Amino acid sequence: MSDSCCNTTSKSADCCSPDGNVMLLACSGGSNVGQLANQACMELTQEGFGKMYCLAGIGGELSGFVASAKDVPRMVVLDGCEVGCAKAIFNKAGVPLRGYVVLTDLGIGKNKNFNLDRAALEKVKDAACQAAQGQS
Amino acid sequence: MDIKVLGPGCPKCKQTEEIVRQAVADSGVDAQVEKVTGVMDIAAFGVFGTPAVVIDGQVKSVGKVPSKKDVLAWLGK
């Protein structure tokens, strides 16, 4: 079990509620930060914080995916870098962006090393948890 | 018009089906309303949750009970 704020055994006073209803989306791009975003969504799903969902379905503008993204109460969208592919997909599909995090803004450098750094991953998961807070 | 209400049978799903049927009756639109309860059948629409309403293949709402006003708008009324 990770030490992220979504760990139900966490002692953090700021621990966010892992109620499982948070839609988790990652750009899943071809760099360390894209794959850190993907891995964070996978682990947060496994830990019960939310459910990873298919960004490609929104990109394809399939109505089930677009309507789901519009109607879900809480979401987290992780873009690996400032190129903002996930953000662009949301804009194209006409879905308001919520819970948006850019991993390079967290101080994580972008590179092609796919041996993902655990400390960086925990930082991403914490940021994702924080991004989900405050949404209805 | 083909309308599907997706949901395994939870109270909100039943409420959604009732609202959809009421809206169809009120509107006078010629429509078939089908309740879809199979998990795999629901998953085929790619929805994140239920209830969901699908009209002529287009998913209109997900994870909430729509108002009759919403449904009437989807029916073009």
Any key phrases for this structure?
heterodimer; A: 136 residues; alpha/beta; four-stranded parallel beta sheet; 4 strands; globular; B: 77 residues; alpha+beta; Glutaredoxin; four-stranded mixed beta sheet
Notes on the protein architecture:
The complex is a heterodimer of chains A (136) and B (77). With 136 residues, chain A is an alpha/beta fold. Chain A has one domain. Chain A has helices at 32-46, 55-59, 63-71, 85-93, 118-132; strands at residues 22-26, 50-52, 74-79, 100-102. A 4-stranded parallel β-sheet of chain A has the order 2-1-3-4, with helices on both faces. In chain A, strand 1 (22-26), helix 1 and strand 2 form a beta-alpha-beta unit. The longest helix of chain A is centred in the N-terminal third of the chain and has 15 residues, at 32-46. Chain A is globular and about 35 Å long. The relative contact order of chain A is 0.23. Mean pLDDT of chain A is 89; it is low at 1-18. Chain B is an alpha+beta fold. Chain B has one domain: Glutaredoxin. In chain B, 38% of the residues lie in helices and 25% in strands. Chain B has 3 helices and 4 strands, in the order E-H-E-H-E-E-H. Chain B has a 4-stranded mixed β-sheet, covered by helices on one side. In chain B, a hairpin with a 2-residue loop joins strand 3 and strand 4 (58-62). In chain B, helix 1 crosses helix 3 (68-74). Classes of the chains: A alpha/beta (136), B alpha+beta (77). Chains A and B meet through helix 3 of A and strand 4 of B.
